[in-house]
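Check the record.
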Amino acid sequence: MTVAIEMGLTTAGAAAAMDLEELLATRLLVQGNSGSGKSHLLRRLLEQSAPWVQQAIIDPEGDFVTLAERFGHLVIDAEDHTERGLQVAGERARLHRVSTVLNLEGLDAENQMRRAAAFLGGMFDVDRDHWYPMLVVVDEAQLFAPAVAGEVSDEARKLSLGAMTNLMCRGRKRGLAGIIATQRLAKLAKNVAAEASNFLMGRTFLDIDMARAADLLGMERRQAEAFRDLERGQFMALGPALSRRPLRLNIGPTDTSPRNSTPRLMPLPEAATEEMRAVILAAPPPDASRPQRRPAPDLLEQLRAAKAAAVPEVRAEPIEVPVSAEELAERRERVDRTLRAVLAEPDAGFRAIGVLYQEFVVRCRIEGLGSAVPDLNEFRRMLTHARAGLGTDLADDDAWQEVSLRASILPDDMQGVFMMIARAAKEGWPCPGDAAIARAYGSHSLRRAQRLLGYMEEQGLIVVQLDGGGRRFVTLVELAWATAPGDPNGDEQPAEPAASAASA
């Protein structure tokens, strides 16, 4: 059965139809700058296809919750549910073939990514018996499949990007047809965008986005300027479900509307300046989160307080037991030994600092260290030195005070990498490879290691150079320390020269 969805009219006035069955097999990518009409296009598509196919909408701004009143979508407010609860909800939505709107409004970027990934994962992992056809619409897809790392944690980004990749790359066999909309193709991960075979390109102004849109539509570069001339609600269409040649169309009207309408000019209120001053600069209401000042005690309570003050309470002063230098050194060695045991775990280099600190505290208690356990800030400093390969004796050396001072301008997670390079430069060892730098940073990405070096060079801390053989060496600015040339593609950090000679 062929179902044609009317999306609007072409510039010639003919009906612009979309083949729903072809769309389920080939997926859709929508691009357009803010205000180009992407959300209106998605709403038109959802309204026209709602009687024919199950739908799921990943809605970061709460624009599509109004579909519930007209078409019976189940609205799921993500902030009211855990990630596990949303995963189960995604599974049950497919089992019972219920159209849903995952409302992510009110959550920060990281929690939006985590909860969207859980919900998509639940729909993706259902048994084969329930692989019914389903449209999965993701608005503002660049938030969930970013091309580059942002302010969110690596774990959240990996979860979200993995779920989006599964949707677009492997979802077709499971009946999931991904429809993704983005403001800019340059912000969207390429492996996610590349899986779409249908395209609706709206108004855009940046040269790089116009060039990519023209390439996807098979247009010549000189024709890319046409994307600047598109009106709101106009899109260039191409794909097996739309048109075999680039076709300009105007999206038709919708039956529902978003909660947040397009801003309209409104006359300013007429009010006297003094009245507005009194309203705007009035004292703020009391903050409920802060403890309120206690009311003044009555006379009886004052008498009791005075009586209690007349009889001084004798309190035993804590007795401080002096600790000898030998005991301090022994405690320090036990703490260092515990830290080395934590870092000896296979995946310790890639775990969050909070998780490592919890395990460190537990091990210290087992060792009987008690109050000698370092706090989190001290643990960060110790971890930075340990990942850089610095022992306690070397970290306390006066020669490293300047290194520590210069490292302090970097973010905490980069300081260990800088100190590792500084140590190699001070000792004249070969420059660590990308794998060693990434491991010290807590990442598997070799490209991130290269970006770290570039960032440190931009901060004026190091100078990175290559010799004639393509080997890399790093010079520390103002310290006159330089590493020996090393292979940047080497898998391990080069061994110390003395150790190498001994093993030989």
Notes: The domain at 408-504 is CATH 1.10.10.10 (Arc Repressor Mutant, subunit A).
